[in-house]
Specification:
7 strands; 3 helices; 108 residues; alpha+beta; 5-stranded antiparallel β-sheet
Length: 108
């Protein structure tokens, strides 16, 4: 579900990559491409790429912040999703200040 504030849409995107072994190469490729897009955009504080490893089965899901929407839409199989919970979320690319932007009431 997208969150709209005025005219600004706050849509997150996710990409399920499967188990750890199968997800390593795709994660690295996407991370490298995202870093180039992030740097080209001037390193905006609200443009971030996160990952989460499911502790039960080792599967990896990537999450793209709303400011990364155009990048996420360029990735096959990336889908719109709700904002992820902060628990077990890791920042792959982005400014460390994004934690306060996206999760202001949660511990970092």
């Amino acid at each position: 579900m997208a969150i709209t504030t005025g005219s600004m849409c706050m849509q997150w995107y996710s990409l399920y990559l499967g188990n750890g072994a199968d997800s390593l190469a795709p994660t690295q490729q996407i991370q490298e491409r995202f870093f180039l897009a992030f740097a080209s955009a001037g390193g905006p504080g609200d443009m971030s790429l996160f990952s989460r490893i499911n502790p039960e089965d080792g599967t990896v899901t990537l999450y793209f912040s709303p400011a990364a929407e155009s990048f996420a839409k360029s990735i096959p199989r990336a889908i719109a999703c709700a904002k992820p919970a902060q628990a077990r979320l890791g920042l792959l690319v982005g400014d460390q200040g994004c934690w306060a932007v996206f999760f202001p009431s949660e511990e970092t």
